[in-house]
Input
Amino acid sequence: DPTFYNDYFLFWDMTGNVLRGLHLPLWVYAAGAVALGGLLLALWRLLRFLLLGLPTERLSVWTRAGLCVLLLGALGETAVFPTDLGQPETAVSSLVIKLLENSGRSRLAYARVNQFNSDNLAPHYQFTHNNLTQKPDIYLLFVESYGSVLYQRDDLLPATLRLHNELMDKLRDNGWSVASTRSEAPTWGGASWVSYTSALTGLRLESHAQFLALLDKYQERPFPHLINYLHDQGYRTYRLSSIGTELDQNTLATYQQFYRFDQWLQFSDLDYDGPLYGWGPSPPDQYALNAAEAQIEASGGDAPHLLFFLTQNSHYPWNPLPTLADDWRTLPDLPQPPAPPAERPSYDVLRQHYMTAVGYDLKTLVDFIVEQGDDNDLFILIGDHQPARVARYSDGWDTPVHIISRNADLVDAFRPYADFSHSLSTRDITATLHHEGLYSLLMRVLLTQYGSDPTNVPDYAPGGFVD
Output
């Protein structure tokens, strides 16, 4: 639901990102500011005229009586249906009720923003003193817009099942074990950074405001999240952000001070000069992922590593898409794709674009696993949230999660904690895991399997460490 406190921060930050990404000349922004100022002035004058310019003495007794009846009716409806009048679905809703409810949600959001202090959190992270005796390479791969809506539309379900069967056969034929379940995302239709930060920290973040507050609180001191824990265990940690529009240096420094990856690979680090696609726009995920892995192998030595990546090509608008290449190094040589049509595609066409984009990225990731993965590597594929413009709120907030490794014992160690299938399909699974529970699940499994102190492992907290 709309919430002033949350939406203010989101609007302010995202507007800045959009304006920077447009790369328009300065005079365009100046003209836009003047036009906006003129519009606000015109609205003010119109409102002033409506409130002060109408001569009330010209209203008849009957008109005044009718207005009183309407006013009493509105007040009566407010008394009888105080909650319904604040819902957007109500045919005739009340602005005042909406403002009051929004104010209440804003106060609650403000209280939640300030709940993550170190004294409350410290007892939940005692396991970070337990060392790993074996250290598999870990790939935490978030798949943009990969939601359970794929199982809830008649035109998406058959293609989804075929895709999962095809990719499962490829994994099984190459000796990979798979466990799949669903997880409830903390966001819906967007705000990927809120979703994956919940997974990395073990905290349920529900808004951009909470995200910003957490970043601000832990700029000077490290937060005991997954990245810092693995770094302390001797891992080299990498973040791949391949989007063509890079973060400005101040924002990047703020993010890096919180996440503390050893290396943050951006578009300019990928040596890519080919066509760009879709959101961002961005290079092909196939190229970005393999180029990043090549750099990791060249610079990492014998140290274990973690690679974190959020796919770009499965982000709205899902068109145009790159093609899968036999050799990822040839992708920069492809011709520039034609621009998508200016008119908005129909809903049916949009769903097919979405299905194709998810298929492209899942094929990319499975090919990467089969071609680059080693015997003890652990791959975690997880959707960040349901896709906006394709899903509805009634479809829920679940996304698929896939645990993949050639080490079957490691994969099986996840199974007692949630309803895991033995394939890529999550069609008949009910989510008991939440994204903020992934950290405790992963650490419980790793420390149970490889920890030096088997008594110091976190409890599995499917809803996160802090209620």
Remarks:
- The chain has 14 helices and eight strands.
- The chain has two domains: 4-113, 128-327+347-450.
- The mean pLDDT is 88.
